[in-house]
Amino acid sequence: xxxxxxxxxxxxxxxxxxxxxxxxxxxxxxxxxxxxxxxxxxxxxxxxxxxxxxxxxxxxxxxxxxxxxxxxxxxxxxxxxxxxxxxxxxxxxxxxxxxxxxxxxxxxxxxxxxxxxxxxxxxxxxxxxxxxxxxxxxxxxxxxxxx
Amino acid sequence: xxxxxxxxxxxxxxxxxxxxxxxxxxxxxxxxxxxxxxxxxxxxxxxxxxxxxxxxxxxxxxxxxxxxxxxxxxxxxxxxxxxxxxxxxxxxxxxxxxxxxxxxxxxxxxxxxxxxxxxxxxxxxxxxxxxxxxxxxxxxxxxxxxxxxxxxxxxxxxxxxxxxxxxxxxxxxxxxxxxxxxxxxxxxxxxxxxxxxxxxxxxxxxxxxxxxxxxxxxxxxxxxxxxxxxxxxxxxxxxxxxxxxxxxxxxxxxxxxxxxxxxxxxxxxxxxxxxxxxxxxxxxxxxxxxxxxxxxxxxxxxxxxxxxxxxxxxxxxxxxxxxxxxxxxxxxxxxxxxxxxxxxxxxxxxxxxxxxxxxxxxxxxxxxxxxxxxxxxxxxxxxxx
Lengths: 147, 385
Prior knowledge:
The structure holds two protein chains of two kinds.
Chain A: H1 11-38, E1 45-48, E2 63-68, E3 71-78, E4 81-88, H2 91-97, E5 101-106, E6 112-116, E7 122-128, H3 131-136, E8 139-144
Antiparallel strand pairs in A: 1-8, 2-3, 3-4, 4-7, 5-6, 5-8
Chain B: H1 5-19, E1 27-28, H2 31-43, H3 45-50, H4 63-73, H5 89-99, E2 110-113, H6 128-137, H7 148-155, E3 158-162, E4 165-168, H8 175-180, E5 185-186, H9 191-218, H10 232-249, H11 256-263, H12 274-279, H13 281-289, H14 314-326, H15 332-342, H16 347-352, H17 355-359, H18 365-384
Helix pairs in contact in B: 1-9, 2-4, 5-9, 9-10, 10-11, 14-15
């Protein structure tokens, strides 16, 4: 028996399935557009790193630590990837944002990365280690999905 | 945002296809990043509450933890052959991913039985050794009861044929393995037709592997705790039974006599009577958990025949769309919406132009689309099942 030896065609099921492909594709695109629009919302956190640390031509340290308000950020170089580890700092920040999904956005638009803080207030972002992304780490903000 | 169950699975599948086509020129699949992106997506409230069923998690430890468990139970579930077919959806998806390999030699790759998977004289892809290595990492064990054993005796082992080379392919494969075992450097999808073909296959693959999870969540159970002990068949029968009970009890009033009344028309396999089912650990858990089951209608849980659905070409789809309108299956606004999406128009544009509002005042586009699909699936089931 081959894959072609299948049950008789059911045209209304085929129609519903084809409609599902069109609708799912469109809904997924719409969701991405909405998340992109989220970038215009007020940021919960903003980061300004020392420019020298992420200059495209400067040797990147193996890790950079930064702390801003209720958030701590560590950037590690992992081959052709940059790993940004975020950690909510303090009970108030954890209480407000743990378990929430959001987006990490850079001022230069090279980074637009969905993230989620786990129950302990940690999040990981795996980014391309490109000059644009490295420059993007100089000015970051995080916005959360609307509750 | 209120899309639920099946529409969310379909949307997730469309996201995966997008992620597997992201980038300029060549696409490089990073399994780690793909997994991470899926976890983040599933942690978004809409998915977390209506697909992952996070509110049912017994010891809630965050939407991301629930998303990980969902992936482990759904996309990491080993698929088995059904209905005497020589391949299952994960094999078909693996073949589709191999054919997208960017290196020369992948485009004609075949995953098939030894009897009809002859090696050709084409070029062997340069990254075939890496694929062979990843294939070799997959446990080739066949679960007792899997018909694959008989199929192997009858039609031979399953093989990946690429150029002049042939590699053994495990009988049991997960959707995740199907996506990440083949070549990781892919050619971009060209045109809507190839995109839609992969999206169609991804939707069917995700639907088939999500069914067990959805059937358990519909019972108000945290699926992780039951997926190894309660079969999908039992879960579906239990769902039908509980729907009948709910009809009798008009809501949340759980009483044994309602279970006894519903039993004659909707018995649950493996249990002798309503009393036995009531007193069982499953019955008890359902009674405990039914305060907050995932609200899914029958048609929102795919059945095994749904994976046989075929994609209609443009003309067939347009003809069937007209017929659906004529027969009152859908209204004029819904027919217009589907025709626009078929033409590749974006929902955001239909919203921004005010066209959707003009045709369906006050409609939330996502609810509108989700309800439309629910309606079409329900109609297809009424007509053809």
